[in-house]
TrEMBL record:
Entry-linked PANTHER family: RIBOSOMAL PROTEIN S7 (PTHR11205)
Cellular-component GO terms for this entry: ribonucleoprotein complex; ribosome
Alphabetical UniProt keywords: Ribonucleoprotein, Ribosomal protein
Family: Belongs to the universal ribosomal protein uS7 family.
Domain of life of the source: Eukaryota
InterPro entries: Ribosomal_uS7, Ribosomal_uS7_CS, Ribosomal_uS7_dom, Ribosomal_uS7_dom_sf
Domain Small ribosomal subunit protein uS7: start-end pairs: 2-50
Pfam family, one: Ribosomal_S7
Protein name: Small ribosomal subunit protein uS7 domain-containing protein
Entry annotated with the keyword Ribosomal protein: yes
Keyword Transcription: no
Length: 68
C-alpha cells in the first residue's frame, strides 16, 4: 500500500500531500469492501498483478514491432 500511496503523490500538484492520498486510498478500500464483501487489499494486489501482465505483454509487443 505504501508504493500505491507514493505513486499517487508523484505529480507536481500532489507532491507531498500524503495525508490526502492516504485518505483517498482508505475511502477507496472502504468502497471496494462494500461492493465486493472481500478483503480490499487482496483485490488491489490481484489488480496490480493483472496490470503487470498487461504491461509486460505490451512491452514485448513493442520490442517485437521494433525488430521487424
Amino acid at each position: 500500500m505504501e508504493r500505491l500511496t507514493n505513486s499517487l503523490m508523484m505529480h507536481g500538484r500532489n507532491n507531498g500531500k500524503k495525508l490526502m492520498v492516504v485518505r483517498i486510498v482508505k475511502h477507496a478500500m472502504e468502497i471496494i469492501h462494500l461492493l465486493t464483501d472481500q478483503n480490499p487489499i487482496q483485490i488491489i494486489v490481484e489488480a496490480v498483478i493483472n496490470s503487470y501482465a498487461i504491461k509486460k505483454k505490451d512491452e514485448i509487443e513493442r520490442v517485437a514491432k521494433a525488430n521487424r
